[in-house]
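Private note to self, pasted from the team thread so I don't lose it. Backbone tokens:
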């Protein structure tokens, strides 16, 4: 890094430190764990920022079912409303006594999901319009349309066609391509710190569970007889199958561990990346609360690491979408193993 860049970063951190209250005891202590959980967890409202202790957020509809029936109100009315209904809010969950109520609220992750879906529709409808009236002899698209085509052909040619038998490609390609672009765009939106981004969508295990469940259903509902034969009667020595079915039990266990691995891998990588980035940001504030000298030295290192993590997260956003799509395609292809394409007779 060039010296003048270091001086600029150091000066910015020093000015930031001078702007903090000098009475460190009076300054509010920063709870890094609480901040990480607040920024990565789902919420009933969309928090934007806090100014002078006043939280600025976008209220969202809260829809719950209690012993008194269905209740619907906005999240900015949650405190008085929950108190009037005798409900309590613990770690983002609403309880009636010791029992959790049925909550189908439109939360931050739900809104982020809608935003991602709308963006995907806009992207692919606009790209499809470019191809209308085009001939095969026309030049390849450029700009954003060219980028989308490149990603689509990369996933289709290098993953789907290489792992799934040819006669099944058109059946599974729509799901796999949709999963890739959904995960990729969700990861990118999660890196944007302000609305309409910032929600930890793929860092929500419920989202990754549903994606993995879709892959599991496609694999096991449409798997051929050879796939099920390898599970219940694999080609191994007989004493590994009878009288104790050791290998069949292991293979059957694998039916559930494969989608479980898909779910945990995506969730853990995205959640962990966000947690590390937020923790590095907290280090800057914590060190400046100790002293300006400590903040300028340790905080500058944390600032550089935070920038590095942001760029790394951009790479991870693509890699995790790629890995999930690739493994799903491999699992689907294995469910159709043994289906050889008919060979052409020699003339």
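Design output:
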């Amino acid at each position: 890094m060039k010296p003048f860049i270091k001086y600029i970063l150091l000066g910015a951190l020093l000015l930031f430190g001078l702007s903090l209250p000098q009475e460190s005891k009076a300054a509010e202590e920063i709870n890094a764990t609480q901040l990480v959980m607040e920024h990565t967890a789902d919420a009933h409202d969309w928090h934007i920022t806090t100014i002078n202790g006043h939280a600025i957020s976008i209220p969202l509809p809260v829809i719950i079912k209690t012993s008194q029936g269905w209740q619907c109100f906005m999240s900015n009315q949650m405190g008085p409303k929950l108190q009037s209904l005798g409900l309590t809010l613990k770690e983002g969950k609403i309880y009636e006594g010791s029992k959790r109520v049925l909550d189908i609220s439109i939360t931050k992750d739900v809104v982020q999901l809608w935003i991602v879906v709308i963006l995907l529709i806009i992207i692919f409808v606009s790209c499809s319009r470019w191809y209308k009236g085009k001939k095969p002899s026309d030049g390849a698209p450029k700009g954003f349309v060219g980028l989308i085509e490149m990603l689509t052909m990369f996933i289709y040619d290098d993953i789907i066609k290489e792992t799934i038998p040819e006669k099944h490609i058109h059946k599974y390609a729509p799901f796999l391509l949709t999963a890739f672009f959904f995960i990729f765009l969700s990861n990118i939106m999660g890196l944007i710190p302000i609305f309409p981004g910032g929600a930890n969508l793929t860092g929500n295990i419920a989202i990754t569970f549903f994606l993995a469940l879709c892959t599991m259903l496609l694999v096991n509902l449409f798997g051929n007889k050879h796939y099920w034969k390898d599970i219940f009667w694999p080609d191994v020595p007989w004493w590994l199958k009878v009288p104790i079915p050791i290998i069949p039990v292991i293979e059957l266990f694998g039916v559930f561990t494969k989608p479980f691995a898909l779910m945990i891998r995506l969730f853990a990588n995205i959640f962990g990346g966000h947690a590390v980035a937020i923790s590095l940001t907290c280090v800057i504030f914590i060190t400046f609360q100790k002293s300006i000298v400590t903040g300028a030295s340790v905080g500058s290192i944390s600032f550089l690491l935070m920038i590095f993590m942001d760029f790394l997260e951009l790479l991870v956003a693509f890699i995790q979408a790629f890995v999930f799509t690739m493994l799903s395609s491999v699992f689907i292809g294995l469910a159709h193993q043994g289906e050889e394409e008919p060979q052409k007779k020699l003339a």
